[in-house]
Every structure is written in C-alpha cells, then in structure tokens.
Amino acid sequence: MSLIKQSKEEYGADFQSHLFEQYKLYVEMADRISARRMLANTFFVGVHTALVTAFTVLLKANFLQPTLSGFAPFIAVILLCFVWWRVIRSYRQLNSGKFLVVHALEQMLPVAPYDEEWVILGSGEDPKKYLPLTHVENLVPLCFGVLYVFLASMMYCNG
Questions:
Q1: Helices (H), 61-132
Q2: Which of 11, 25, 52, 65 is at 20 to 30 A from 98, Cα to Cα?
Q3: 52 falls in which pLDDT band (50, 70, 90)?
C-alpha cells in the first residue's frame, strides 16, 4: 500500500501533524460507517418485524391464499432479506478496507493501538477472544428468511 504521496522532506514541517490529523479524520470516518451500518440494521429489523406481524395477522384471517399471488409477498420479503444481507456485506467490506488503511497509517505514527488491539483479539480468528459482529449480523437476515419460509409453508398447509 503506498499511502505516502510526498516525502517528509518534500511536504515540509507540517508533515507529521497533518498525517496525524488525516489519521484522526479517517478513524472518525470508519466509525461513521459502523454507525450507518447499525442504523441500516435497525431499519431492516423494524421493517421485518412489522412484516412478520402483518403476515401472521393476514394468515390468521385467511387473507393470503396458497396461489402465486399469495406467495408473491413472501418471495418479495425473502428478496428483501437478501438485500439486507448484501448491505451488511457491503458495509463489512468498506470497513475492512478502511481499517487496512488505518493500520497502514499507524505504521507511520508513534503508536498503533488498533493494530495492537486486533492482535490481542486474535485477528478475529478465535471466537473465544472476539466474535466479529458481522458473523452475528449475517445470521439475522437468514433467520427472518427462514421465518418467512415457515409462514409461507403454513399458508400452503392451511390452504
């Protein structure tokens, strides 16, 4: 990774202070990506909770019939689960790239706290030390998808 576009000598006396300011800004941007990810998850959980409730009420009232038009909403929400999973994956990839840059920037600073923290946590490889949230996050859309399949099969069995 070639982060440095100008040498210290070419840049001048402010090189180190500007490097540190850019580092702080970049860490803040990585944190904002995480906050946006949590906001997106909150949105999707709310939407899917409302949809599961609505489907349960509609099934109980025998409003949905085991026809193509009855299965269409289930197909749509299962696709929405896939979209949610892709959003999670996209945020994970974006943050992974950002933290690679953070780690590279830390190599030019006196201390590397994120790098050391990652080593202490076993680089995310040992679930006893650290289970990355993304592993858990990936299961939630899958669980909702399974729930929709269960509700659709209930509609089919009751129809």
A1: 68-106, 113-120
A2: 11
A3: very high
pTM of the model: 0.84
Contact assessment for residue 151 and residue 55, using Cβ atoms and an 8 Å cutoff: yes
Taking the C-alpha atoms of residue 149 and residue 77, their distance in angstroms, rounded to an integer, is 10
- Per the CB < 8 A criterion, the answer to whether 141 and 85 are in contact is yes
Contact 67, 158 (CB under 8 A): no
Mean pLDDT of 49-73: 90
Domain boundaries, the chain: 23-158
Using a 10 angstrom Cβ sphere, with 0-12 exposed, 13-18 middle and 19 or more buried, the burial of residue 144 is buried
Q: Distance between CA 129 and CA 135 in Å, rounded?
A: 14
Confidence band, pLDDT 50/70/90 cuts, at residue 159: low
